[in-house]
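agent> fetching stored inputs for the N-(aminocarbonyl)-beta-alanine docking request
agent> found them:
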Amino acid sequence: MRTLIADGTVVTASDTFAADVWIEGGKIVALTHPSQRAALGQAERTIDAAGRYVIPGGIDAHTHMELPFGGTTSSDDFGSGTVAAAHGGTTTIIDFAIQAKGSSMRAGLDAWHAKAEGKAAIDYGFHMIMTEANPGTLEEMTGLVREGVTSFKMFMAYPGVFLVDDQQIFRAMLRAGELGALITMHAEIGLPIDVLVQRALAAGHTAPVYHALTRPEVAEATGTERAIALAEMAKVPVYMVHLSAQRALERVMEARDRGLPAYAETCPQYLFCSEDDLRGDPGDEWKGAGYVCTPPLRPAHHHDHLWRGLRNYDLQVVATDHCPFCMKDQKELGRGDFSKIPNGMPGVETRLYLLWEGVRDGRISMNRFVEITSTAPAKIFGLHGKKGAVAVGADADLVVWDPQREKVLGKDTLHMRVDYSPFEGRKVVGAPAAVLSRGEVIVEDDRWVGTHTRGRGQFLRRGTFGL
Ligand code: URP
Ligand code: ZN
Ligand code: ZN
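agent> prediction call returned; pasting C-alpha cells
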C-alpha cells in the first residue's frame, strides 16, 4: 500500500521545507516537491497536510511501564502506556528493564520482554538498569549489547535498592567502553539524602514537599560531577538521565566545554512544574504527592536555565521519565510519610504538547523541537537511520502536526492510565492531527484508528552509541 502525505511542511532537526512524503512498505520511499506529484503516480491513501508540519514521531528515551516501585507498580503497562504515547505523537519508547538485586540481567531482560510482547502498540527498546557490576554481570553486558540493549542505567541514589558504588560504576563504564555501549546515570548521591530523610521524619515533617527539601540541588550537582569524573577516567561517554537543576547542568556544561562526551536529558516536569506544585494547595498539602518524582521538582528559577541548556545544546534530549502512580491507593501509600510516596509522574502523552509551548514562545526553534524529542535520542541510543528522521529509507514513523489545534490537558482528555494529571486544565495549542507508525495511521484527530493495538509494536534491537 502506498500512502502520500501531501502538501505539508517537513520539519527535521536541520531543515524546514515543503514536500510530499511518499510511504511504502512502512518506510519513507520519496520526498518530492508537490509540483512533481503527477510524475509519481497514485497513492492508495492521501493524508492532507496543508498548513501542517510533518515531523518524525517522538522518541521517548525514558519510560517505566509496569515498574515495581515502592511497594506498588506503575499504573501504565506496555499496552495502555504505548497507546497514550501514540496519542501524544510519540512512536517509540525506550523503557528500563531491571536487574533484580542478586539476579541476572538476562532474567531482568526476559521479564521486560514478557511485559511488552503482545501488548506494545508502538515500537520499543530497552535500557538495562544494572544493580550490580560483578564479574558475571560485566560479562553479561556483551550478550545484551549483541541483542540490541546497548545502554545501561546505574544509580547513585536509593541505597539498598538500586545504588551501586563508584568502583562498580567505573568497572561498568570500562566494559561499556569496550562494547560501544552507553552508561546512563541517576546522579543524586543517595547516602546523605537518606540521612536527611530520616532527620526530617524524626522531626515530624511528613508532607510531600519534604521530598524536595531532603534531596537538595547540591546532591544532584555532586553526583553529576562524580559521574562525569568516572567517565573521564574510563574515557567513555556518559549520559545523565532526568537532569533537573541549574548546578547539575553547569557540571555538564563545564565537562562539554573541556571537550568531554557528556550528555544529558531533562524532562517536561522540570521545565513546567516546580517545588510550589509539591507544596500542594492551601489547605490541601497532600495534592503535592502527585508531583513527587526523583530528582524532585526545583524552584521555578531553574526553568530558564534548563531552557537555555536546550537551546545551547548543553542538554541534548527531553524524555519523560513516565512513571505514573494513581493518587488513590498508590500515592496514598505515603500519606503520613513522604518517603513512602511512590516516585514518579505521568508524562509519556504530554511531552510534545508541552514542548511545543517552547516553540510558540520562542524558547526553541521547530528544528530544535524535532531534535530534542526525536532525532537526538535516535542518534544517542542507536536508532538513527531507522527512527527519528524524515528521510528516504527511514521507518515512516511520522506525525502530522497541526500548529492551530487546541487541547485542554486533563485526566479525562488524556489516555494514560492514571487518576490525575499534573497539568489538569492547561490549554495547549499545537497537537497531532495524525500519527503514523511504520506507515500505518494509528491515531487521527485524537482517536485510535490503528487496525489493532495489542502487540503491533516491535522490539527494536538498537545499535551502539551513535554520536
Ligand atoms: O521518580 C522517578 N524518577 N521514578 C522513576 C525512577 C527513576 O529514578 O527514574
Ligand atoms: Zn532515575
Ligand atoms: Zn526514570
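agent> quick read of the result: The chain has a mean pLDDT of 97.
agent> awaiting further instructions
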